[in-house]
Amino acid sequence: MSYDLSQLGWDDHFASSYHRFDRADATPGRVLRADRGVCTVLTATGVTRASLGGSVMIDAARDPSLLPCSGDWVVLRTWLDRRTTLEHVLPRRTALIRRTADKDSSGQVLAANMDTVAVVEPIHPEPDDARVERLLALAWESGADPLLVLTKSDTTRDPGAIARQLGELAPGVPVLPVSVQRGDGVGELRRYVAPGRTLALLGRSGAGKSTLANALAGATVMPVQAIRDADGKGRHTTAYRNLVVLDGGGAVIDTPGIRGVGLLDTEGGLERAFADVIDLAGRCRFDDCGHDTEPGCAVQGALADGSLQPRRLANWRKLRREVEVESGRRSARLARPRRAPAPPSPRRR
């Protein structure tokens, strides 16, 4: 069975990056799923499994975010013994990266080369404003276009009102209420998965990401776990990142359900997510305004007239401090000299 890779986003940009690796035993492909040391890759001739080659492992030892993940375009090599190895990850056009839990502030790639990142937040039991702001900062930083998808819109009488309310937290971001059960909004969401385009789904467990992927595919392609009705939470049903190819072209990347997302070098994404606060800060009388008691502070003025909520300002400050700390840690880690390998022990005679 053959596949037209252009339907998944293969274009002149990636073809140009691949050109220097092109040889008789090499072929390009897109990663569907990445497991420990092995990737499932779609090529023009079908799906294959490939172990990681030496160059990829060397790059990943320097920076774990360079490991292949769902959505990556890669170079495969077929050996005489019929083994297939993944030799190179082509430069990413976009990348969704979160901070890992370690103290060195390394990054974990959740998805790559997507055109749109949909922050998926359930209306039931209640949207979490702070989580939406954090995930939108991550989405903006990825380089892709953010989208806010409100699932389970059938659980409220007026989903439009909730969409307008959350839209105030997402300057410049489309907000789409969706009910898979009733089919509301699914057709509009499908427009983001046109041939050659990729949509990544980002949100907590139980938000409805896998349900959305199934609805877009028109079939059960991702497992869905029943959730507790009281709090809307469920188990981590999607513990891996998986790219789903849709009939007619396009792809959806279902990222794992996440309880928390650490921000890394996301200063630019943070500014886009809090564009209203940044705009107010630019109107302050003093360039170094701390937005507390300084005269002529536009931020404090917005708090006084109610156009800016104290909670939003507090979360902006919290996330900005987090990014500053993690950026400092990451810079320190990258500046540390590498340890030279230990010399071999002398042999005993």
Automatic annotation (TrEMBL):
Keywords: Cytoplasm, GTP-binding, Hydrolase, Metal-binding, Nucleotide-binding, Ribosome biogenesis, RNA-binding, rRNA-binding, Zinc. Its cofactor is Zn(2+). The keyword rRNA-binding applies. SUPFAM superfamilies: P-loop containing nucleoside triphosphate hydrolases. Its EC number is 3.6.1.-. Pfam families: RsgA_GTPase (PF03193). The keyword Kinase does not apply. Residues 325-349 are annotated as: Disordered. One of several proteins that assist in the late maturation steps of the functional core of the 30S ribosomal subunit. Helps release RbfA from mature subunits. May play a role in the assembly of ribosomal proteins into the subunit. Circularly permuted GTPase that catalyzes slow GTP hydrolysis, GTPase activity is stimulated by the 30S ribosomal subunit. NCBIfam families: ribosome small subunit-dependent GTPase A (TIGR00157). This is Small ribosomal subunit biogenesis GTPase RsgA. It comes from Actinoplanes sandaracinus. The gene is rsgA.
